[in-house]
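Fold this complex.
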Amino acid sequence: MSARPPIETVSPELLPPIGAHASARRIAALLRRYIYLLRSSSVRIVELIYWPFLQMLTWGFLQQFLASTDNPYAKGAGVLIGAVLLWDILFRSNLGFFTTFIEEMWSRNLGNLLISPLRPHELVMALCIWSIMRLSVGMIPVALAAFFIFDFNLLDLGLWLAVFFAMLVLTSWSLGLIAAGVMLRYGLGAEELAWSLAFLLLPLACVYYPLSALPDWLQYVALALPPTHVFEGMRTILLEHRFDASDLWWAFGLNAFYLAVGYAVFRWLLSRARDNGSLLQLGE
Amino acid sequence: MTRDAAQNGNEAAAVYAAPVVVRGLTKRFGSVTAVDRLDFSLDAGSTVALLGGNGAGKTTTIAMLLGLIRPSAGVVCVFGADIARSRYAVAQRMNFQSPYVDLPQRLTVSQNLMVYAGLYGIANARARIESVAAQLQIEPLLNRPTGKLSAGQKTRVGLAKALLNAPELLLLDEPTASLDPDTADWVRQTIKGYASERGATLLIASHNMSEVERLADRVILLDKGRIIEDETPAALIAAYGRETLEDVFLDVVRGRTAPDFADRAQRKAS
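Structure:
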C-alpha cells in the first residue's frame, strides 16, 4: 500500500436531514438495501415462493379429497385453500418484517444504522413497506398456481380480498414490532421466541375451523384477535356468499389498537436497550 | 462585571462552543459503575485518545456520545445538542467506525456505501463514493461482496463508510485492531490526513499506545470508569518519567501515579 493516501477531491453535498423528504429518502435507502439483499441470492427469491407453494399444494389436494366426500362444509368453495393463502399472507408478511430486521443483527449492522440519522419510525416504515413487497414476490405466483392447479381464484373473494389482505398485514406488523423489540432488548438469544410469536395466533385465530369449534371461554380470546374476524369473514363469503361488514370493522379496530401497542412496545424495548447497553452486545 | 467574571464567562462560552462537551457523565449497569462522573470537552479540530485497560469504560463512553447507551447521569452535548434528547439534529455531522460493527456481508462494497449515502443524505452519492474509494484505495473492491474481504480491507471499507458524510466529529473504536502493521500504519495516516484536511474533531478509543502517540494531541486515561489523566502524550510521558506512553499506561493500570499527580490534580481542581 502506498505510504500516503491521495487527498480526496469531492466533498459530500449534504441534504437537509429534517422533514418529510429527508425521511422518505432514508426509508428509500433502507428499501434499496433490502432489494440489494434479495437480489444477491436467487435462493432467497425461490424460498419466498417455495414454502407457500408447498402449503398450497398440500391443502389443495386435501380440499379436493374432502370435496369428493359427502361433507357439506368441506365442499365449500376452496375454504381450506383460502385459509392457507390468507394465513400465509399473515405469516409471510410477519416473516418479511421480522427476518429483515433480524438480518441487521446477524450482519452486526444495527449499530451503524442506529447512529445514523435514521429515526426508529423510519426503520419501522421501511420494514412495513418491505414486508408487502416481499409478500407480493411470494404470494402472486402461488395464487396464480392455485388458480391453474385447483381452479381456486383468490379474486373470488372480490374487493374484500384487498381488505382482508390489509387487515392481515396490519396484524403481522404488530407481531413483527413486538418480536423486533424483544430482539433489541434480549439479543439473538431470544430468537426462537421471536420466531414463534406468529404461531401463537394459529390455534386461536380460527384459521382452518369456525369460531364455534372453540370452547365458549376461548371464543372470547379468539374474538379479541383481528385475524379471527378475517377468517370468519372469508368463510362467510365462500360458504354463504355474503359479506358481514362487522367482521371488517372489528378487525380494523383491533388492528389499530394492536399496532399502536406494538409500536409502543418496540419503542419501549428500544429505550430499555439503550438503558442497559444491549445495543452494543447484540449477540447471543 | 468584574474581569474575573468576564474571563469565566468567556471560558464557559468556549467550552460550550466545543464540538463535544461531557459533564458528570455516569453509567451504571445494576450495581456496576462502568463510567463515573466524566468531565471533558473536545476542542474543534483536536484528536483525543481515550485510553484504558479492558473494562475501563472507553467503549461505553463512546456509545453514550453516539446515543447508543443512555447515561445514568450527566449530559453529553455534541455541537450544542443534548445527545439524549436531540441526537438527530447532529447525527449527520458525526460518524463512527468500530471493528465491533459490520456492514451487511452479502452486499457489495458499493451497494453498502450507496445505502449509507442515502441515510446520511448525500446528494452527490456516486461522486462522493468514488472520491472516498480513491482516498482509501478501495476502488478494486467496490463490486465485491463485503463478506469476502480480508480484515484489512473491511477496515478500510468501514472507514469509507465513516468518512462518507465528511463528519466534523469522527469517533473511532479500536480503528486498527487486528490489522497487520503495514495496513495499520496506512489507516493511521489516512485518519490523520482526514483530520488535518477537514479540521475534523476525532475521538479514538485504543489499546495501541504507539498509535495514540502518533495520532493524538491529547490523552484521556480511564481507569475503572474514571478519568485518571488528561494531558498531552508528551506531558504524560514527562510526568511519569517514562520513555513511552505504553510505560505510562502500565504504571496507571498497575496503580502507580506520577510523582506530581497530586499537584496537577489540585491545579486542575482550582
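Residues 181-198 of chain B form the longest helix (18 residues).
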